[in-house]
């Protein structure tokens, strides 16, 4: 019987892929704490010894279906169409988890959830997966799960339930990584930063969004996923969280939904990235 041995909310923002020299300059002499946070998260992952990492990819936008990437192996050289002037020539080479993808489709069909294992060999990569694989030195098998953009919060939770059941029916030891930000409102193109350290929360898109993020972090630290889930349709979806919160909702759906009480351990400072709110948080399985 398979199990979820740990989970995390993890930032993937592209600025973390720039050189240390550039990050230090933008950080007013101090690097982003999310960089050190990747090391802390890797330690938590190593401690629970997974064989599979499921990445809930907030950049893999799909329509009409939740998709599970069923490739057996992925290799290539990633270039971002969003910001190719610096997020380019990122080599990747990692194993997939096709059996788990197929199991997700089977459970989805049983439960009347629109979920499919995607098998096309030319399916593109997204940096919400590639950046995480690189930053966490992931050598385990990887299953990327899409973010279906025409879903309500409840449908993301049901997708997570499918994932959780498929894991239980497998023999896999799984860590779930919800790859994305909290509040996700970008600063305008000609925005002038308020704090000389670009990563400082003072530079988040609005004081209201930063306050909402901090409140959500406190609730997650207490394991109050029920409050977060209940607030999603009226609060966090309207801010909105990245990808309408699909990365988090699918993660927590796999862990019991609003009944989940796993407390969150903060593994980084709360930081700004182009107006968005970012943090790494770990949850025991």
TrEMBL record:
This is Extradiol ring-cleavage dioxygenase. InterPro entries: Xdiol_dOase_suB (IPR004183). Pfam families: LigB. It comes from Sphingomonas endophytica. Residues 7-283 form the Extradiol ring-cleavage dioxygenase class III enzyme subunit B domain. The keyword Oxidoreductase applies. GO terms for molecular function: ferrous iron binding; oxidoreductase activity, acting on single donors with incorporation of molecular oxygen, incorporation of two atoms of oxygen. The keyword Oxidoreductase applies. Keywords: Dioxygenase, Oxidoreductase. It comes from the Bacteria.
